[in-house]
Amino acid sequence: HAKQNGRRCAALFETSMHEAVQERRNIEVDLRAALKRNELELFYQPLVSIETSEIIGYEALLRWNHSEKGMIMPDVFIPVAEDTGLIVQLGEWVVRSALHEVANWPEHLTVAVNLSPAQMRSPNLMPTIINALAATGIAPQRLELEITESVLMNDNQSNVELLHKIRSLGVRIALDDFGTGYSSLNYLRSFPFDKIKIDRCFVDGVDSREDCRAIIRAVTGLATSLGMVTTAEGVERSDQLSQLKLEGCIQVQGYLFSKAMPAASVVGRIAPTVERPVQLREIGE
Ligand code: C2E
Ligand code: MG
Ligand code: MG
Ligand code: MG
Q1: Tens digit of pLDDT for each residue in 16-42?
Q2: Is 232 in contact with 198 (CB distance < 8 Å)?
Q3: Is 234's C-beta closer than 6 angstroms to any atom of ligand 1?
Q4: What backbone phi and psi angles, to 5 degrees, belong to 174?
Q5: Domain EAL: where (predicted)?
Q6: Residue 43 β-bridge partners
Q7: How far apart are the CA of 61 and the centre of ligand 1, in A?
């Protein structure tokens, strides 16, 4: 009996494995077409200064408006794009689009763009950044690139050199999702990041758990000593915000202020505020 059950399970497992493989293949085929059909869109989520409550800039987050499946989130298609190498083309599109969008914003607003490790291996990355900055006339200081520590794994010297080259343009570099993965303090020594983004998993418990609070306190202290700014990701409650302020965190980002929104909504929000900066309380949901 047990043996029969085992066989049944194995068959079910094979079926679902097969389906998963098939689904990935579908995504791959569709994603190639998506670039040509203009189905990709950047949404923007505000980054807010804890001290002044003002919006400092926005993080560009990729969305895919699939013709049949509707909106697909990056966690579904970015891994496929990375595996297939499509991420290079896709990432170039993201850099160009984000910089063209910033051209519509007041000059004090910055934009953050996520970079995949695979993009760091492409010889096109540097020229794409330089050309997009030149084409839009955007000050390099308004562009921030978010990388994860995997880029620095195994003491990857060519990536460290590339990051230095990018930074010498004036572009800022942030370390994203800090505290997840294989976080090693050594990564903070291998490159002088402008910013550390503390992962949502620590921010989540900052108002209820002493361990999360202790970690946030340690990371903000460390970042400040190293001359780096800290951003807390995934802030959803005002209790988290007040605690993060106490711990000396500099910036916050999360649903408490706003979800990521289409570019048109960003412009709609900043347009009437030329004389008056956007205040945090105006953007709560
Ligand atoms: P990330 O760079 O860490 O971006 C933050 C993610 O957290 C976003 O998810 C954002 O919508 C979500 N988030 C923000 N505030 C909150 C909150 O208060 N609560 C919760 N539960 N979530 C919050 P999203 O847009 O689904 O993106 C997921 C990941 O996909 C990003 O994580 C990033 O790693 C990747 N990604 C997005 N766009 C791009 C891109 O253009 N290029 C690359 N290479 N990766 C991208
Ligand atoms: Mg990010
Ligand atoms: Mg993150
Ligand atoms: Mg992430």
Answers
A1: 878 888 888 888 999 999 988 999 999
A2: yes
A3: yes
A4: -115, 145
A5: 24-274
A6: 61, 262
A7: 6
Residue bearing tokens 């298609």:
77
**Angle of CA points 177, 233, 74, to nearest 5°:** 65
Q: Ligand 1: which of 63, 72, 78 to mutate, judged by most atoms within 8 Å of the beta carbon?
A: 78
Q: Which residues of 74-87 are buried (b: 16+ CB within 10 A; e: fewer)?
A: eeebbebbbebebb
> Considering only CA atoms, which of 54, 49, 52, 91 is closest in space to residue 74?
91
Closest atom of ligand 1 relative to the 235 alpha carbon = 18
CA angle, residues 258, 264, 267, in degrees to nearest 5: 80
Using a 6 Å cutoff on CB, does residue 74 contact ligand 1? yes
Q: Which helix (H) or strand (E) holds 143?
A: strand 143-147
Please check whether residue 144 is in contact with residue 194, taking contact to mean a CB–CB distance below 8 angstroms.
Answer: yes
**Residue 38 neighbours by CB distance under 10 Å:** 9
